[in-house]
Design a protein that fits this description.
Layout lengths: L12 H7 L5 H23 L10 H13 L18 H13 L2 H28 L2 H18 L10 H20 L5 H13 L5 H14 L4 H22 L1 H7 L8 H6 L7 H13 L4 H20 L11 H16 L12 H17 L5 H7 L1 H22 L4 E4 L2 H6 L8 H9 L5 H10 L2 E4 L19 H11 L7
Parallel strand pairs: 1-2
Helix pairs in contact: 2-6, 2-16, 2-17, 3-4, 4-5, 5-6, 5-7, 5-15, 6-15, 7-8, 8-10, 9-14, 10-11, 13-14, 13-15, 14-15
């Protein structure tokens, strides 16, 4: 058995010679990736303790979690200024856990971090099932944790159901692959994917891949499990209709503008995962006849297509990319494990190709000037910004609580802390204006007619401190942070 990949592939003589060498490359690769994964996690884990808005959906989710746990209306009527285009399962789960542990805001944040780690474990299982490699599986899992903690930090540790939903889908995918390998019916795994869809509805890459793989490999034998799944989906939708009424479907199909602007705005973010994509593609071309190459080609292609399709919708952010990153985590582990079958392995030792692969992945992770984790560890000025922000939240919540009637806060966490109800969803209002169902003048008149006061929150109530131009950790850097706080917010 290979010391590096943990399984027994077909080898070239040069690979056999290298496997007896003194350097345990697998341990070196894993050590570097583990250090980076832990390092990048410091920032979102440390930040989660503060009552600052990490991502724009946090207040939206917290309000609906509160409503679900208290038995209040979860899906507002169409004429309301509040919308809810998320399925119900996450609201009830996190809302009830919030009643037990104190606050759904922090429960949702904790669940996001747990979800990230669960997805990493599921990537490990998927690669292990596909290749038998322990080291390759660990490479894919650690790369996923590192790139998500670094490049999608606004979701990691935020009160958003996406990562917990990805954990449900990841568990279903690992179960699906295990049952496929054992030639057992895929129905239980597919039904778990349905549960994931009622947790968060935009995770379409994994279920579409599973359906396509079933049809390709099973032919008519796949019809029965697919019919069961369709029946489960329809039953779930009918149950939601019975529980919430017609407004459930009206909210889920609420107004949204579409265009290519969102794709152009977001596509640059794919640069972070592009090296992993290129490395995987170069291997998959040479090993295209294998089951591993065919499955990962399906998973990655559908994940990329789903990502680009969702970005055509206005207001869709980085979470559209998550199915693709999961797919690339699995593809990275499979590529590492099966490097002997790459076309270049005919000319270069597979272990040298692994060296090149890991060097590229590691360099892409560290080639950035964003070092929030370092600032958390080394800069008291950086940390003090968050303590000041915490005081700003408390101060503004006290002010908002004294305002008579309903209040629309630009930071919904502040309004929630002040005990004010959720009366305006800025996203729904923006989409109503964008789709010409509303005009700005009508919106202003509506706010006045409903006696809703608008309160613009201090940027310090959000967990996005301005980035100091200098890396010096002195009074000058602190002054830079505070002077820029009122003027800008970084969207990292």
């Amino acid at each position: 058995m290979d010391q590096i990949t943990g399984f027994s592939p077909v080898r070239l003589p040069l690979d056999q010679l290298n496997a007896r060498g003194k350097i345990d490359r697998g341990a070196v690769y894993l050590s570097f990736l583990a250090v980076l994964a832990i390092y990048f996690l410091i920032w979102p884990v440390w930040r989660a303790q503060f009552p600052l808005e990490i991502w724009l959906t946090e207040g939206f989710n917290a309000y609906h979690q509160d409503a679900a746990a208290s038995g209040f209306q979860l899906y507002p009527p169409p004429d309301s200024l509040v919308g809810n285009n998320y399925p119900p399962l996450s609201f009830y789960t996190i809302g009830w856990l919030g009643k037990i542990f104190g606050d759904s805001l922090y429960v949702g944040r904790a669940l996001s971090i747990v979800g990230l780690l669960c997805v990493a474990g599921e990537i490990f299982l998927c690669v292990r099932i596909l290749t038998g490699s322990i080291t390759g599986a660990a490479i894919g899992a650690l790369w996923y944790v590192a790139i998500m903690s670094h490049n999608s930090a606004v979701y990691v540790g935020a009160n958003d159901p996406q990562l917990a939903g990805e954990a449900i889908m990841g568990a279903a995918l690992a179960w699906f692959l295990a049952r496929d390998k054992g030639e057992m019916p895929a129905t239980p795994a597919l039904l778990l994917m349905v549960v994931g869809g009622f947790w968060k509805h935009n995770m379409i890459g994994i279920p579409l891949t599973a359906v396509a793989w079933l049809l390709i490999r099973g032919g008519r034998r796949s019809f029965r499990p697919l019919l069961i799944v369709v029946a489960a989906i329809v039953s779930g939708l009918l149950l939601c209709g019975a529980l919430f009424g017609r407004v459930f479907f009206e909210d889920m199909l609420g107004p949204r503008a579409y265009g290519w602007g969102g794709v152009l705005m977001n596509v640059g973010h794919l640069q972070w995962s592009a090296p992993a994509f290129a490395i995987w593609a170069s291997w998959a071309i040479g090993d295209r006849a294998s089951k591993q190459a065919r499955f990962t080609s399906l998973l990655v292609s559908i994940g990329l297509a789903a990502c680009l399709l969702q970005w055509t919708g206005e207001g869709v952010g980085g979470n559209a990319e998550f199915d693709l990153i999961v797919a690339l985590g699995i593809a990275t582990g499979v590529t590492f494990a099966r490097m002997e079958t790459a076309r270049l392995a005919r000319y270069i030792r597979a272990n040298y190709l692994r060296d090149i692969m890991m060097a590229i992945l590691l360099l892409r992770l560290v080639a950035t000037d964003r070092q929030e984790s370092a600032l958390v560890l080394l800069s008291s000025e950086f940390r003090s910004y968050f303590h000041s922000g915490q005081q700003a939240v408390s101060r503004e919540a006290a002010v908002v609580a004294k305002i008579p009637g309903n209040v629309f806060c630009s930071n919904k966490i502040v309004c929630r802390l002040a005990g004010k109800p959720f009366v305006v969803d800025d996203y729904k209002v923006e989409e109503m204006v964008a789709t010409r169902r509303f005009t700005s003048d009508v919106l202003t008149d509506t706010l006045q007619h409903r006696s809703i006061t608008t309160f613009t929150n201090d940027p310090m109530t959000r967990a996005s401190p301005p980035k100091p131009r200098s890396q010096k950790c002195g009074a000058q850097a602190n002054a830079t942070l505070r002077s820029q706080a009122a003027a800008c917010r970084l969207c990292w």
